[in-house]
Write a structure and sequence with these properties.
The protein is of the alpha+beta class and 101 residues long. It contains two helices and two strands. Helix content is 31%, strand content 10%.
Amino acid sequence: MTQLQIIEQIQQVHPEIGESQLTIMLNNALDEFVSEARTNEKLGVLTPVADQRYYDFSDLDSVNDDGDVLEVMQVSYFDSSESEELIINKFTGEPQPQDRT
């Protein structure tokens, strides 16, 4: 549904509200929704498998369905040899099949 369709539906019930005011109200509602969605952060832990690059989000104990994940904020691992948590940099693009990193 487009914003214009939403505005038209609202104006059927509330014809006294103008398009500009409804646009501002819808944008504020969207900003609030995004803010609320980001506060629902969860931490997931999984045990890595040798020679496995990809994992389903549902492999994490805190995720019921892959579709529940909106954004991955950070991926890290604990390096026992250095006794510290190391953050894995985000990769953009498509890995090459021969890439074993």
